[in-house]
Amino acid sequence: QYRMNQLIRTVVESDMAELKDFDIRNAKKMLQLLYVIAQQVPFSPNISKLAEQTGIHRNTLNNYLYFLEKAKLISLVYTSGRSTSILQKPDKIYLNNTALIYTLAEDKSNIGNVRETFFHSQVSQIYSFDLPKKGDFYVGNKYTSEVGGKNKTQKQIKDVGNAFVVKDDISFSSGNVIPLWLFGFLY
User: Fold this and answer.
1) pLDDT per position as a tens digit, 129-160
2) pTM (2 decimals)?
3) Which of 72, 119, 124, 159 is a good FRET partner for 41, with 20 to 30 A between their CA atoms?
C-alpha cells in the first residue's frame, strides 16, 4: 500500500507536470481531491460540496477532474447522449482501477464499487461508456449492462434490448448473464 501511495504521488507531482495547462503548485490540492473522491466513488458529484471538502474553487474543480482523468487516476462517465466538455460536470466518477480503491479508500471500499470499477476499467480499454436510463453502463453505444453480485436480478434492465447482467461470484454464463471475471480477459 505504501508503494502504491508513492506511485500516486509521483503521478500527481511529477507526471502531471507534463500535461498542458497543469500548474504543479496545485499538486497538493489535487492529491486531496483524489482522496476525497476515493472515499465516495462511484458517485454523482456535487461540485459545490466537493469544492468545500477540498478547498478548491468550484470553477477550477472541473479542470482538476479533467487533469486527474488525463493522468489515468479517475474516469469520468456521462449520461448517454450528452456532450462531454471540460466545463461539464460528470455524472459519475470512478477510480481508474480497483488497486486505487484499496489504496485510497482503505477500509471504506465498497464491494459494489469494486465490481463496477473492475468492469469499467476492463471494458473501457476497448469500448466507450455512458450512463443509461436503466442499468449501470451503456457500452459501445449498443449494450446495457447491470453489474452486481451472484444474487443480482434482471429487474433493472427489464424490457431493455441488448442488456446483460454481469455477476460476480459465478463461474459460468447463462443466457444474458455473464461472469464478471471474464471481462478481465479484455484488458
Assistant:
1) 899 999 999 999 999 999 999 999 999 999 99
2) 0.88
3) 159
